[in-house]
Amino acid sequence: MTQVTPPVGRDLAAAPSGDGRADVPRVYRLPGVYAPQGDTALLLASLAREELRAGARSLDLCTGTGVVAVASALRGARATAVDVSRAAVTAARLNALRHRCRVRLFRGDLEAPVAHERFDLITVNPPYVPCEDPALPARGPRRAWDAGTDGRLLLDRVCARVPRLLTPSGTLLVVQSSLSDVTATLDGLRRAGLRARVADRRVQPFGPVMSSREDWFAARGLVPPGTRTEDLVVIRASRA
User: Fold this and answer.
1) Minimal CA–CA distance to 59: which of 162, 147, 138, 196?
2) Which residues, 6 or more positions from 170, have their beta carbon under 8 angstroms from its beta carbon?
3) Given a cut of 60, is residue 5 above it in pLDDT?
4) N or C: which end of the chain has fewer CB within 10 A?
5) Which pTM was predicted?
6) What pLDDT does 12 receive?
7) Across all residues in the chain, what is the average pLDDT?
């Protein structure tokens, strides 16, 4: 078990939360669970800028270590988190206990365990990295990032199915890479009846996984040859 801190950077450290603080929990990570990285930090920064009243119902899908759910709970939300990985659910439970906050946890496929509930805030950091395999991995660490040849196997499902879980005034925050077609996410959420826009953006160098696929990305036309950076974006969507 490894203790990690999300790589907050200057942007996150300066981001105001509902009570004027940007809470960035230190978390434990079990083997095989996605380590909080730049996308996690960007999502936490966007979360910190959202008004989140005490008692609001929050949902974090693809929760991993549970760091985003814990951040919501620390601000007084009634937090729920879901992940398909048993190890991730265990890690999220440990991190909620560590921070003495309550997070309701489910193991399941995306929104399935809470499909009949409604939430004021939904956060999602789904697998979105394009890969040669057209199917989602059934097991192993790649399950945390691989998402089909266009990186959209989870993102398209988020666009089609998650908006119905929002309350009339609810907000959805989704983080993804520019390599997995930001416009398709915006269009998909708009078709679902939401107003959607890019709320935050950050350029970061390719990590080990992305670097190992640099030539394949270029051959697929996802990036110009020689590109070694990606744009991470947070898309904010709401009915109002």
Assistant:
1) 162
2) 118, 119, 120, 121, 122, 238, 239
3) no
4) C
5) 0.90
6) 32
7) 91
